[in-house]
Amino acid sequence: MKGKKTYKFWLSVSLILIVISMIFSSAIASDWGKVRVTKINIAAPEGQNVNAVLYTPKDASAENKLPLILVCHGSYNSKEMQAQNYVELSRRGFVVCTIDSYCHGLSSVENGDNGTIDSTDRYTCMIHTLEYLMATLDYIDMDKIGLQGHSMGGFHCNDTVTYYLNREYMGLGENPISAVLNMGCEPYHTYWGLYPSTERLDADSLVKGGVHDGSASESADENTPIPIDIKYGLVAGYNDEWFWTNEEGNPHYYLSEDRAKLFINQVGDLVGDDEDVENGKYYYGEVEGEESFRVIYVPDQIHPLNSFSYDGAYDCVEFFYTAFGVPSGHEYIEPSNQVWFVKELFNLLGLIGIFMFIVPFACLLMKTPYFSELETTELLPPNPGPKDKKGKLIFAAGWVVCAVIPPLLVMPVMFWWIGQGTAETYVSDIPHVWNHFFGQPNTNELSVWTGIVGLCIGLVFFLSYHLYGKKVGQTPSKLGLIIPGKLLWKSLLLAISVITGIYVITFFADWAFTTDFRFWMIAVKVFNAENIVYTVIYMIPFLVFYLVNSAAVNSFNRIDNMKEWQSAALSCIGNVIGILTIIIIQYAIIDLKGAFVWNPMRIYNLFPLVVMIPAATVISRKLFKKTGNIYLSGILFGLLYTIMTCANTMTRGSLFLG
After folding, report:
1. pLDDT attached to residue 431
2. CATH 3.40.50.1820 domain locations along the chain
3. How many CB atoms sit inside 10 A of residue 189's CB?
4. What DSSP element (H or E) covers 293?
5. What share of the chain is helix, strand, coil (3-state, %, to 5)?
6. pLDDT digits (tens, 9 = 90+) for 276-303
7. Whole-angstrom distance, CA of residue 200 vs CA of residue 197
8. Fewest CB atoms less than 10 Å from the CB: which of 56, 88, 482, 513?
9. From the centroid of its chain, how far is CA 40?
């Protein structure tokens, strides 16, 4: 009975943290009720839908029109990753709409010609959203419409601008966009060959002609540049891994480059050949008699921090204040006055609550008649620790090899084998990178790498067992590897029940508070039916890894000459030290020498694992104490990580459309 009370206490604590997270993250996002938060689902002309959230200051009206800013995330992310911008802009009086790009979040997977998903079609989501908002909202100041996009979202901005400039030239309507801020996206960068013939917004070479309307472009004058009478800004991180790079593809001082000067000189001859562009300086000039400006910010940060940093939020607020002024009826708030990170901390509190929820909820379910068989009354004895020199050497060698295997396989598996040596895995003309069945390029790489790592580590423990463990009395039963089929089935059902509980809470948070549980790249968020299908497709390799990890943590590393905390610490360190080392090496060399050691995308993929695997280790040991088998925690985390991954990445293929 005492145990049941303990589980109820910790379950209550986890739920209290989750409720606090939902209430306060929602309150900050709505500026304590001063901003109306509305979820919208926009039906696009081609039959797709764009999922978005609209943040409207409550004083917006037909009599008090306010500026509109559309914001969009980068690749492999979703609309929630723009929190710093939609929170800070909306509390200052701007109407802000944050969107899920096509192929991301809850928006449709865009289907192009011949049953494939055309990469250029994905960039129409911002156009579709803007057309809808301009047609339905009467409180928008049509003279003050701005765009902001991070990375891929910057492509959305540039292509949306190009679309409207072309239409304006062809007499199909005026360009409604007045200001654009690209964060982590160069306006005419060819992006390492992914867009080899595209000159995005290069004022000297961008020509008349409909980008999205082939018939219109045929009648356009292809030799006349379009004047870009739009206020434009760039946020170019000094150590950005993707843009602002030199010919070798490494970060460099962008402000001295001809490309930076060309960008500024779009509004006049303002920077000479022997000058550098000044960081954060607004360069004012004229385009066809209209005043405009250009600005380039160079914060000391890497690419993914553009949309998760004090500097990124500061630059965004300052830019739109400069472009549009203080919105009508609102007071000026210094760009340094930021609350978005407090919201993110409350989201983190909820994420912690979600992970705290797992053990007590699972243990309480084991108090029910159906799952009671899973609860062991006697913990398996620890393994005999290595006593002689040979045993200690085998144990140490196994620990080191298992720590080294994950980083050693990152580039061979992710980059060269599955990624086919591409800078980004979603390029549609590279064979075997993705298809409609394996439709998530990033998950393809992660799943194969994770599964192979699991198999390799499993082989190490198999050899260790036969070389030493067997001789000191280890057996599969004593290691918790052998259980009746009935208990294996109930372990699966219990894992699914716990995950169901997690996502009932998550969907309630989204429905009632328009929030989820996240911190930077780690997110427990809502998903759609397609994500469930891909979870089933991708779950096997993740299950393999987390089952092997559960065996390593609870069987082989649980030895009699170590205290519980020492064994847990040894497991956590072994699980993460190799991954952490490769990340540290990558960014230390970027900082010291301005050069990449490995492809950045594959190193990004490792960031969440620095938290996820140790969390799985700690929770796994607690569940093992209750069940005496490795399977409950292995299945639970294998499935949970698969769902989290599939819900929070890009989906390029589609079983529903393919």
Report:
1. 55
2. 32-336
3. 20
4. strand 290-297
5. 50, 10, 40
6. 999 999 999 988 888 999 999 999 999 9
7. 9
8. 482
9. 21
Closest CA to 648 of 486, 367, 446, 454: 446
Answer for the pair 633, 616: CB distance below 8 angstroms, yes or no. yes
**Tokens 């295997």 found at:** 405
46 DSSP β-pair partners: none
Say if residue 481 is exposed, middle or buried (CB neighbours under 10 Å; 0-12, 13-18, 19+): middle
Check residue 107 and give left, alpha or beta (phi > 0: left; psi -120 to 50: alpha): beta
Identify whether the C-beta of residue 182 lies closer than 8 Å to the C-beta of residue 263.
Answer: no
The span from the CA of 567 to the CA of 237, in Å, is 41
Q: Angle at the Cα of 353 (from 351 to 356), degrees rounded to 5?
A: 115
Q: If pLDDT is split at 50, 70 and 90, which confidence band does 340 have?
A: very high
Reference 516, options 351, 339, 290; nearest CA is: 351
The correct answer on CATH 3.40.50.1820 for the domain covering 32-336 is yes
Cα separation of 521 and 125, whole Å? 23
Cα atoms in the 13 Å half-sphere on the side-chain side of 251 = 27
Q: 329 in the Ramachandran plot: left (φ > 0), alpha (ψ -120 to 50) or beta?
A: left
Task: Return d(Cα 202, Cα 476) in angstroms, integer.
Answer: 66
Number of neighbouring beta carbons within 10 Å of residue 385: 15
Q: pTM of the prediction?
A: 0.92
Spatial neighbors of 136 by CB under 8 A, at least 6 apart, are: none
Q: Could you report the per-residue pLDDT of 353-368, keeping only the tens digit for each?
A: 999 999 999 999 999 9
| 71, 149 Cβ separation under 8 angstroms | yes
Residue 215, pLDDT above cutoff 50: no
Q: Mean pLDDT over all residues of the chain?
A: 87
Closest CA to 552 of 484, 452, 460: 460
